[in-house]
Amino acid sequence: MNVTIIGAGNMGRGIGTRAVAGGHSVTFVDANPEVAEKTAADVKASAKNGAKVSTSSLGDAVLGDVVVLAVWYGTNIEIAKQLGTKLAGKVVVDIANPLNSTYDGLATAPDSSSAEDLAKAIASGAKVVKAFNTTFAGTLLSEQATGQPLDVFIAGDDADAKSQVSQLVTDGGMRAIDAGPLHRARQIEAMQLLHITLQGTLGTNWGSALKIIG
User: Fold this and answer.
1) What is residue 192's predicted lDDT score, i.e. its pLDDT?
2) How high does pLDDT run on average in the chain?
């Protein structure tokens, strides 16, 4: 499938690397064209099975089947509003963790999540899926943590959309875990908040991963 990744920073690079390693073509979009070009050049080395890597501006981008918003909470909603009806019919992946200004809590209301806030703001017909928010960028680049394949927790209300994202995850060498409907993003985001705050305690330097064993 064709994947558009908006945001060519560390997470965009990590997700793009796994996507092209799974044979999917990726287009990077970033507010800084030079960043997009650098990330695209880095990711090309991992491309397999004819996967192509390109860049585009937000205004000119021909959006792929899956659009990954690899940006901060708040920016994800702004971009969705800017793209408007161009997102109709697309699978839109929200990776944001809505951390507050002190990074010790969530900025979203208790009865919502970044993914649900995005779904309320996005064009009609777009299918929002929560994924990749619990995987750190470095582990995505290496495809694993301490020798274990990464688990990617997925939540969404559209079964076909979740299936597409699951395929993207599986093809990239990771394990997709269907966490249920979109409102489960609340628990997935809270889970990652804990994971983030434990980095200092564990001393894992962003190299750890959340995984279900059994």
Assistant:
1) 98
2) 97
CB-based burial label for 75 (10 Å; 0-12, 13-18, 19+): middle
Contact 1, 24 (CB under 8 A): yes
CA distances from 127 to 104, 115, 190 (A): 30, 11, 22
Tokens of 161: 């959309």
Specify the CATH architecture of the domain 2-202. Answer: 3-Layer(aba) Sandwich (3.40)
Q: Does the reported pTM lie above 0.85? A: yes
Strand segments (E) across the chain? 2-6, 25-29, 53-56, 66-69, 91-94, 127-130, 144-145, 148-149, 151-156, 175-180
Q: What is the mean pLDDT of residues 143-158?
A: 96
157, 178 contact by CB (below 8 A): no
DSSP 25: E
Distance, in Å, from the CA atom of 47 to the CA atom of 29, rounded to the nearest integer, reads 18
Q: Are 130 and 115 in contact (CB under 8 A)?
A: yes
The CA distance from 103 to 195, in Å, is 12
Q: What digits encode the pLDDT tens for the residues 170-201?
A: 999 999 999 999 999 999 999 999 999 999 99
Is the CA virtual torsion 174, 141, 36, 120 positive or negative?
A: positive
Residue ranges in 55-158 assigned as alpha helix (H) = 75-83, 114-121, 137-142
SS3 54: strand
